[in-house]
Amino acid sequence: MELTEAIRARSSVRAFLDQPVTREQVEAVMDTARWSPSGVNMQPWRVEVVTGASKQRIGEAILSARAGGQAENPDYSYYPAEWSEPYAGRRKASGIALYQALGIGREDADKRIAARNRNYLFFGAPVGLLFFLERRLGQGAWLDIGIFLQSVMLAATSQGLATCPQAALAEYPDIVRDVVDVSDDYLLVCGMALGYPDPAAPVNSYRTERAPVSAFTRWHG
Prior knowledge:
Shape: globular
Largest sheet: 4 strands, antiparallel
Number of helices: 8
């Protein structure tokens, strides 16, 4: 797949086929993504791959914590404390599009909760990826891992696989670190579902809008 096509084709998939992804396929994705650039070639990313029982343990443990009223304790703040425009409007439009695709109305609180809880089960994908950074690293490492995440998603897309990057999986980092035996010296950046997309699932049919180039670009002669 040509690069521009892969960038445009990539989307956050929330329904996957019951079709296995082999270790060789995952390693091929990582073998491509490892060529991502990073400051002074630090390559600060760390990836934990979970399948089967380990993936299930993470989902069940987080759902149990939420059901028991345990507060989220992410290693960092992903979203702003207060939303302002244009970000608030984009967030609202994204949520509306998602729930419309799922056929869930504003009044269907139980269905909304059930849809959110699928995050913690990697949306049923056969493979879950967990991305970590050492706490001692500077802010530049966050730029590096962001580039790496994009490389992972594009490499997967080129193989006919689908992904969904998931900030929700970083809401309970202590639970995740315990399951995959990662030291507290590493903070959990996010998770990612990986598998084959279900083309028949309505939730996979919607797309969020993107601002035109003129909205975020200024030219200086």
